[in-house]
Write a structure and sequence with these properties.
Oligomer: homodimer
Distance between the termini of chain A: 54 Å
Structural class of chain A: alpha+beta
Mean pLDDT of chain A: 93
Number of domains of chain A: 2
CATH topology of the largest domain in chain A: Nucleoside Triphosphate Pyrophosphohydrolase
Low-confidence stretches of chain A: none
Order of helices and strands of chain A: HEEEEHEEEHHHEEH
Radius of gyration of chain A: 20 Å
CATH architecture of the largest domain in chain A: Alpha-Beta Complex
Amino acid sequence: MQDHLQKYFTLAFSIDCVVFGFDGADLKILLIERGEDPFDGFWALPGDLVAPDEDLNSSVNRVLKELTGLSDLFFEQVETFGAVDRHPLGRVLTTGYYTLVKISDYELNPSSFAAEARWINVNDVKELAFDHNQILDSCIQRLQKSVRTRPIGFELLPPHFTLTELQGLYEAILNIELDIRNFRKKILQMNFLKETGQVQQNVSHRPAKLYQFDEEQYNLLKSKGFNFEV
Amino acid sequence: MQDHLQKYFTLAFSIDCVVFGFDGADLKILLIERGEDPFDGFWALPGDLVAPDEDLNSSVNRVLKELTGLSDLFFEQVETFGAVDRHPLGRVLTTGYYTLVKISDYELNPSSFAAEARWINVNDVKELAFDHNQILDSCIQRLQKSVRTRPIGFELLPPHFTLTELQGLYEAILNIELDIRNFRKKILQMNFLKETGQVQQNVSHRPAKLYQFDEEQYNLLKSKGFNFEV
DNA sequence: TCAAAAGTGTTCTGCATACACCCATGT
DNA sequence: ACATGGGTGTATGCAGAACACTTTTGA
């Protein structure tokens, strides 16, 4: 390499993940408590430095696997942050990703930093390490945009779910209230839900029907998108 | 810095800009012809390595200033690319930005790489250096999305313009045809256009009225956005 | 029988769409 | 007078928004 280029090859790069989960009532994210400086004791987004021979996507998958024990999670790149002083140890640029996890699939993984991970209600997040609040805001906004145009919300639900749960998910993500009749009309029109024939068990009210995704329709919509302007 | 971290601080980072312009008929981008390896002789997006003490936005502004002689251009971050082998000289990650320029403001700047710059019709772009075709595609898609929800298209027009020019701009960006009556109805309803009182000169047909932006309304819309689902 | 959530239809309004003719100017 | 692009209004259909009561179960 030519000499005048050397000084540019002195930066580090990381990825940070906003891992969203839905517990049936609230939208949550996974945070980890840092056990070392800088920001010792602060809560932070899971993330890691990108190795010199590692792709961005590999890096995200690695972090998610270590954190949740799960592979092939849905994720989307959101924004890259590069303020000169964003990391106290040196020049580290970072790219924020959001990820969707079925909270029921998630199990704490005893290895690595996952031991310190916790689900926190999105609305209860306080001051985070580094510029992670900024990354979080950016990811929330992107999720809100994407959920209206692509059927990604369903990555957050268990295989069988009620329409009320689905509506609650949209309400939690978009932070608005939806009309029950209009919501059902619109969702059912889209035609990617199938009745399972089952209903809720042991609820002290009229049990709701359980639905699942019609794989075919669902994959079709995944590729061409939809409009859910609520 | 701790030793085990050293190996991560060996990457370089760049920004690449898709500079859009509109000549009244077609959507164009500024490309530069490379005069050195790698990809000597190839056309490429304007861009540069980010200095160790330089913010991303500063870096974009610097490149745009060198390229066009203009400051304070509108730009938006789009996507970051980090494939391990994307740059032959070493590990260089890059973030793609798109930028909007009033083509009439643009003057070739004799300094720096601008001498080799040329406006190319978006549809005529062939094989570019590095992964720049990918970056371009990503920026075009983003521009198409953004132009429907924010009044950014107007960054591409001169201060006074006709409704037909405005429609042509939307058609060029979105690559579709629009109905003239419906377009005018919708645009005028939005209420951020003001008649200048002037009309076209020296045209061999009925001269069109010239419009300008109503700054107040325009800035209002900039912050809250709009819906232009065409 | 009561509490609690599930489930269901209609009306109204506004916006997108489709569509054809006359107008003002320069040559 | 003709060629060229500028400029205008209406009717239709569809989708979003608002809105209240009955049903089913467990306690």
